[in-house]
Amino acid sequence: MIRYLDPPPRRATSARHALALAFVFLVLAFAARGQTVRPQPAIDFETSGMVRAIAVQADGRVVIGGVFKTVNGVARNHLARFNADGSLDAWNPNLAGDSVNALAVIGGTVYAGGVFEMVGSASRRNLAAIDAATGTATSWNPSPDGEVNALATGSGVLYAGGVFANIGGAARARLAAVSLGSGTATSWNPAPNGDVFALATGSGVV
User: Fold this and answer.
1) pLDDT tens digits for 71-104?
2) C-alpha separations of 6 from 9, 60, 74, 135 in Å
């Protein structure tokens, strides 16, 4: 039985979060697919703005992205990471822009999509690959000309969805597959006629 409760009062300037519940839903989703998820710590934290994306690295560290400028009172512009024990990591890509809306982790790289212009001292527009060890932007640079709202991983590609018209050196309306090696758009071009806000992959389809 599911009980629906009234939502808590909204806070105007900050938000408290607990990631434990999010991982409960992840465990249930993966269990339904016959997969397992490693246990995660309960992470209680406060940000100065909305959290819009969560991704988990293979080592158990948790990356969050959103509209915030601080996490637990510490400066973190739109992107932050927690250690496996729940403490705030020193990793700090320091994005300049409005938001991070989507995250994906592939190996030692964190991919972030949203509305931004810089990652640290590197010019990166709306989509970037960030070294998971150093927090600096890699040379990968598809540079979509509009907001990125969703990311999903594929075989040798990263699928990106949003409000853009061009990405990876090609005209791609709102949805594209970008090579993980070169950062250029592949020939895949579904061209949806509306903005894209979510993506998932499986069984050879997007």
Assistant:
1) 999 999 999 999 999 999 999 999 999 999 999 9
2) 9, 32, 31, 39
Element (H, E) at 166: strand 166-167
Alpha-carbon dihedral sign for residues 88, 92, 94, 95 = negative
197, 203 contact by CB (below 8 A)? no
As a whole number of angstroms, the distance between CA 56 and CA 49 comes to 20
The residues pairing with 158 across neighbouring beta strands, listed in sequence order, are 153, 178
Strand partners, 153: 158
CA-CA distances (angstroms) from residue 52 to 28, 66, 68, 100, 198?
Answer: 21, 5, 10, 7, 12
Residue 186, CB half-sphere, CA atoms under 13 Å: how many? 16
- State if pTM tops 0.70: yes
**Residue 98 structure tokens:** 């409005």
Q: Is the pLDDT of residue 29 over 70?
A: no
Count how many residues are written for the chain. 206
Q: Is 22 helix (H, G, I), strand (E, B) or coil?
A: helix
